[in-house]
Amino acid sequence: MPFTANRAFKAAPRLLQRAKGMWYWDVDNRPILDATAGLWCVNAGHCRSEIHQAIMEQSRTLDFAPTFQMGHPLPFQFARRLIQHTPVGLEHVFFTNSGSESVDTALKIALAYHHAHGEVERILFIGREKAYHGVGFGGISVGGLPNNRAAFANRLLTDHLPHTLDLEHNAFSRGMPSYGIEKADALHELIRKHGAERIAAVIVEPVAGSAGVIVPPVGYLQRLRDICTAHGILLIFDEVITGFGRLGTPFASNFFGVVPDIMTTAKGLTNAAVPMGAVFVSEWIYDDIIKNAVQPIELFHGYTYSGHPLACAAGLAALQIYENEGLLTRGTGLAIPFEEMVHSLRDQPNVIDIRNLGLMAAIELQPKPGAPGIRGMEVMKLAFEQGLLLRVTGDIIALSPPLIIEEEHMSQIQQKLVKILQVVS
């Protein structure tokens, strides 16, 4: 099983059998309140009939169509709908099947752009410590989680910016922390170390999700943007988690007012009903790759299931829900009560930090002496027993509920967490 302590799981399995709205039910028919939108992905709530109907109808007419040297209308329709919500300039879409594939695709597009531009020496990528960019070889190379790459060799040529988590200065920040913009200046040092002419791109999550909701300091992302622009380095935002309304805007780049050159997405793209990812590319990158290509095939890259008919049908239906119900911006109105809810836990046992932005938050716990991660695992297991689905990373509890959450659900999450933290203490 993926990212699972398999031996422990088989000894005491946690199995979900159905879901609806904000809730799962386990195999014993116990309700489990979903505080993590599955895995950051079920933004419109579970088992939406509109998506189910779209998938079923599509499967009757076109179950699969190859997209090598031919195509079908749905990916083009979906792409046109999606770019109505992306920042200006990100006007081309390449469909994948997951966030990991989106990241590897983005890295390839960056290399292809520089090659088409005649800068073939730009082959180095800059990631960031504590970053998660999926599990492909490209993603683990630019990612900053050592366990994800420790057993795997033959990675890309990379270096890493320092992470921005700073409990000494920013503990219990509400929203973007005020301290730490200067950490973006580490990019100047990496440029001096490697040479700007060798760096293809910088890739960051606008808000680092999997490492525990690490919110960027005020001005940090804009400074990265400015440095990249000054040196001809592409900037890639990994919005697999933050895309599709998580911060109260369609994408985090809308929220921060910083436009990347390439943007990766997945998860909420189809409300997780069918696996799918999408990479958004700037007009000028697309033009350079297409116009300067020597071979008839301009980009030697793709997947059997790119733009799959069922995935496109699910994505179009999910996007319609997002638009009809205002879910891409609903988080703006819920951000303050959500913030109040999570920060009300500040005085609970072992809580050493709480951080939040939009509808995502982290509660960091003091590790047990000599046993990091054990307290977090205890919280996760007890939460499941108490009817609450949480995501934990080490000793960090991550919250990212479906965007349909109501304040009554927030109250239930808060009450359950108080009880759980008291017991685990």
TrEMBL record:
Keyword Transferase: yes
Matches recorded under CDD domains: OAT_like (cd00610)
Gene3D superfamilies named in the record: Aspartate Aminotransferase, domain 1, Type I PLP-dependent aspartate aminotransferase-like (Major domain)
UniProt keyword terms in alphabetical order: Aminotransferase, Plasmid, Pyridoxal phosphate, Transferase
An annotated GO BP: biotin biosynthetic process
Record flagged with keyword Transferase: yes
Gene Ontology MF terms: adenosylmethionine-8-amino-7-oxononanoate transaminase activity; pyridoxal phosphate binding
Pfam families in UniProt: Aminotran_3
Family recorded in the similarity comment: Belongs to the class-III pyridoxal-phosphate-dependent aminotransferase family.
Protein name: Beta alanine--pyruvate transaminase
Organism from which the protein derives: Acidithiobacillus caldus (strain SM-1)
